[in-house]
Amino acid sequence: MYGLTRGTVTLLGAAGAGLLVWLATQVDDGSTGGYWAVYGLIAAAGLLMAFSQILGGWTKWGWPRMSLNVFLLAFLPVLVAAGWVVIAHQPHGNWFRAHVLNWSSDIGILGLVRDLAEYVAVLAFGVGLVFGFTFDTSGPAAYGPFGRRRRAAALPAGGAAPPTEDRPTAREEREAAAEDTADREREPARTE
Predict the structure, then answer these.
(1) Residue 120 has pLDDT above 90, yes or no
(2) pTM (two decimals)
(3) 185-192 long-range CB contacts below 8 Å, 24 or more apart?
(4) Distance from first CA to last CA of the chain, Å, rounded?
(5) Helix pair 120-133, 32-56: axis angle to 10 deg
(6) d(Cα 65, Cα 126) in Å, to the nearest integer?
(7) What DSSP assignment string belongs to 5-49?
(8) pLDDT digits 0-9 by tens, 153-183
(9) Rounded distance between C-alpha atoms, residue 96 and residue 145, angstroms
(10) What is the reported pLDDT for 83?
């Protein structure tokens, strides 16, 4: 069931992303506002593709959460690097474009920035995609809403184990065990 759901949601995400890219072709990018609208729509298409994987992961019954590490170590550098090129290729000069081009010349990357002009749409799509990658769903065994740890539930009366895709990963089990140990160490000693 998980593969079928994820495949269907991926197809729907790709269709939605395709629609956003088509909408971007309907916008005149000759003005600065139109330029940003076009590449904003393309970035939204990348975000939609990433979110389709999160929605497909709902079969794990986990809650979406944002990874600060992925945001800081992956998304922000991608945003700066791709944003640098996107700003440099705006159709009309402005303060931001002038500064980015001057700084690019000063640090010796103006040729690279100009070479990437043809691929601004790919960079915009990548920014949206990587931003979407900062979100994930947590598995059911170790985490509840908003990424908070919850206690493990007992097996059903019949003793049947949950399906493989609903079982926690080894990493989730290690993290849960470490949290249990830390919780026990923080509790004050009880005297009876």
Answers:
(1) yes
(2) 0.69
(3) none
(4) 51
(5) 40
(6) 20
(7) HHHHHHHHHHHHHHHHHHHHHTS-TTSHHHHHHHHHHHHHHHHHH
(8) 555 555 566 566 666 777 778 888 887 777 7
(9) 41
(10) 96
